[in-house]
């Protein structure tokens, strides 16, 4: 059986090495499992301590996706088996979210350059991996989205931190609609740094291997940037739909009135652009509880440090697995595939401010510490 993550160390011109990590589950579009997260975290630690490794390249096998999200089937099984209704009783979810969020934070704070090849599908957990990389590359095939509203979750893996820092209204629009972004819109929003052709991976790695690298992070950052700019095709990606409708979206989704924002998003169903029509349809079919959670989390995350956001998201994610819509959302989309989720609460009016507060209460015993208490404090 093939390993779920493949690791290589490639030689460069002056004897320094480049670590290459390849997510190797193309049959699931490289969906992140607990094992994959643990393997990646462990290897990244070794490479961080290895003076011969100049940088890390992170990509996905199969050509269709970098990473389409997390291992939802395993999460669903664990939620179904936890009949207690107690979020803390789901041992698998406790471990999965802790390991995944630690990995994401590790990438954000990594001491060496990490180039993420975000070609193809980059969604959910894939966004979490790509977000913190120092050099984020997209291509003409990139489909970048946070689609959690369709499964009863919220944009986690640090997504609330990322989206809360976009221009007013844009982040909430992406959270509510799961709208997919291409290369140009990713660069416009600062979610990606470079656009290369999807067929340029071999050329890129060959150029990296033919170059000389140092043990200095800043020097390698700059040299890698120059190399990527040389390979980047000028104006390779046309204007995307978000850029085209940027002002409209900001006007529709900015502000503190979630009811008004949701009404504005629903109204986009009548727009002539199919991209906006799909956004409105996805929102209307999505979990009202997820909409309320996303709105509340983005408002709270805006002024928090990244480590604190991961700690907040961890608590909310555990509750989503016990009292939220996550189990039902996965059932409808991936298990029974009837695409007829029975959301509870069924309306935004029911998913009100009072309802959402329960998701922010620590589910563990009073004597226990937060499982991510040490994050960012070492």
H/E element sequence: EEHEEHHEEHEEHHHEHHHHHHHHHH
Q: CATH homologous superfamily?
A: 2-enoyl-CoA Hydratase, Chain A, domain 1
The low-confidence runs, each spanning 5 or more residues with pLDDT under 50, are: none
The computed structural class is: alpha/beta
Categorize the overall geometry: globular
- State the distance separating the first and last CA atoms: 37 Å
> Roughly how many Å is the radius of gyration?
20 Å
How many domains make up the 3D coordinates?
1
Percent strand: 5-15%
Describe the oligomeric state of these chains in a short phrase.
single chain
Number of helices: 17
What's the architecture in CATH terms?
Answer: Alpha-Beta Complex
- CATH fold-level topology: 2-enoyl-CoA Hydratase, Chain A, domain 1
Main pleated sheet: 6 strands, mixed
Structure description:
The chain has helices spanning 34-49, 72-81, 91-108, 125-131, 159-164, 170-177, 183-188, 201-209, 217-231, 241-244, 246-253, 258-267, 274-285, 288-301, 306-320, 326-335, 353-356, and strands at 5-11, 17-23, 53-60, 65-67, 114-118, 121-123, 135-138, 143-145, 194-195. The chain is α/β, with parallel strands linked by helices and 378 residues long. It has one domain (5-360): 2-enoyl-CoA Hydratase, Chain A, domain 1 (Alpha-Beta Complex), CATH 3.90.226.10. The strands form 2 sheets. It has a 6-stranded mixed beta sheet with strand order 1-2-3-5-7-9, sandwiched between helices. The longest helix has 18 residues, at 91-108. The two termini are 37 Å apart. The mean pLDDT is 96.
């Amino acid at each position: 059986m093939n390993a779920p993550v493949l690791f290589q160390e490639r030689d460069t011109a002056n004897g320094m090495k480049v670590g290459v990590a390849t997510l190797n589950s193309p049959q699931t579009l490289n969906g992140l499992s607990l094992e994959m997260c643990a393997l990646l975290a462990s290897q990244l630690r070794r490479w961080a301590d290895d003076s011969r490794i100049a940088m890390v390249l992170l990509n996905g096998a199969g050509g269709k996706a970098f990473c389409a999200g997390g291992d939802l089937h395993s999460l669903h099984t664990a939620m179904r088996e936890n009949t207690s209704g107690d979020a803390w009783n789901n041992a698998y979810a406790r471990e999965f979210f802790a390991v995944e969020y630690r990995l994401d934070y590790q990438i954000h704070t990594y001491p060496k350059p990490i180039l993420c090849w975000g070609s193809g599908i980059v969604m959910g957990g894939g966004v979490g991996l790509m977000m913190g990389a120092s050099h984020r590359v997209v291509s003409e095939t990139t489909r970048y989205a946070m689609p959690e509203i369709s499964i009863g979750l919220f944009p986690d893996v640090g997504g609330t931190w990322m989206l809360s820092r976009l221009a007013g209204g844009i982040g909430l629009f992406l959270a509510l609609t799961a709208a997919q972004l291409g290369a140009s819109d990713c660069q416009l929003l600062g979610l990606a740094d470079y656009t290369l052709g999807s067929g340029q991976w071999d050329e890129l790695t060959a150029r990296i291997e033919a170059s000389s690298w140092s043990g200095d992070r800043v020097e390698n950052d700059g040299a890698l940037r120059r190399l990527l700019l040389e390979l980047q095709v000028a104006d390779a990606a046309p204007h995307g739909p978000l850029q085209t409708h940027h002002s409209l979206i900001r006007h529709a989704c900015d502000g503190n009135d979630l009811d008004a924002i949701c009404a504005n998003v629903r109204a986009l169903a009548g727009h002539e652009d199919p991209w906006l029509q799909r956004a409105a349809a996805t929102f209307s079919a999505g979990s009202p509880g997820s909409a309320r959670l996303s709105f509340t989390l983005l408002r709270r995350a805006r002024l928090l440090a990244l480590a604190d956001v991961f700690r907040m998201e961890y608590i909310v994610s555990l509750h989503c697995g016990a009292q939220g819509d996550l189990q039902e959302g996965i059932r409808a989309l991936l298990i029974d595939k009837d695409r007829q989720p029975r959301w509870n609460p069924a309306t935004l009016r029911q998913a009100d401010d009072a309802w959402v507060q329960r998701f922010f209460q620590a589910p563990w015993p009073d004597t226990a510490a937060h499982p991510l208490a040490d994050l960012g404090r070492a």
